[in-house]
Amino acid sequence: MHKKPAISVVIPAFNEERYLRACLLSLRQQDIDVEYELIVVDNGSTDATADIAREYGARVVFEPRKGICYAREAGTRQAEGTIIVSTDADCVTPRDWLQKIYDAFLIEPELVGVAGRILYEPKPFWGRAWSRGLFWAVGAYYKLFGVVMYISACNFAFSKCAWEKAGGYNVRLAQGGDEYDLLFRLRSQGHVAFLPNNTALTSSRRLVHGILYSFFVTVCYYYLFDYFVLSRLTGRSVAGLYPEFRGEQQSRLPLSSKFAVGALVILIGFGIVLGSTPLAKATQIPRHQLSATFHTAKNHIQQFNTHLDSCTDNLPACTISATSRMIHFAGHRRVR
Description:
Blueprint: E1 7-13, H1 20-28, E2 36-42, H2 49-55, E3 59-62, H3 68-78, E4 83-86, E5 91-92, H4 97-107, E6 113-120, H5 125-145, E7 156-159, H6 160-165, H7 177-187, E8 192-202, H8 211-234, H9 255-275, H10 279-282, H11 287-309, H12 315-335
Helix pairs in contact: 8-9, 9-11, 9-12, 11-12
């Protein structure tokens, strides 16, 4: 007779043959007293992802609709465990990772979720500092208020029952849908705990374009702007899927990313313009001056994107160059 597992680990995967073996090996070596299953959701891979998953005893679920929320939704729907653990194919976990999660649910049966922290690989040097600082802030906020303000889908577990009551993943969202959105809706169902000593290690491939790209494009555009602004206005993700980083390949930046950095640089310029005068005066700018300013800004965005086409391998320098141009533009507008 088939015995249902207590825990289901769901791993979305698209062309993950480079990292998946290490991920599954670390999960197969878990020291835990209960049954658990591994589910790899093949999200349209063209490499050996599915074969590697079967090699390590994982159940393979195929999801043809591209997107992280579609993949996590499909895997969670197929899961048999009462506790769902979410991680990524480029993550490696310590041997007691699952046991700590399971113990948290045993200690507090009414828990709806358990979050842990992540650490990037040691290189680049700022990546690990970034993740340490982020989750130090999460832990400090949790100690003060008892509320988890942020989770990483690389290291998050939840009650499947609570997840179903919350409506599952919002597949209309891209970035943030499997993290912020799910967290907020689960918190309405009950308590989400944070375990600062339960860490998942993840690759730093998402940081290959440097710290400026990671901040302006990843954080500001794909997460903060798309999730907290655009998706709230439209009910869906507008920015689309986050660029894929596989192996050592560094693909050209998508048009949306170019526009994102360009638009943010323009906003910096406008901030300087408006910040140079009292707010009362700023709100009384004649309409013809505003029209001329926006027309000039539009031209700067087009020039920025054209320039970015020729130097995608050195995005920080491009961004700094464009920012300095906008500061010059802002100063020119102020003198006039």
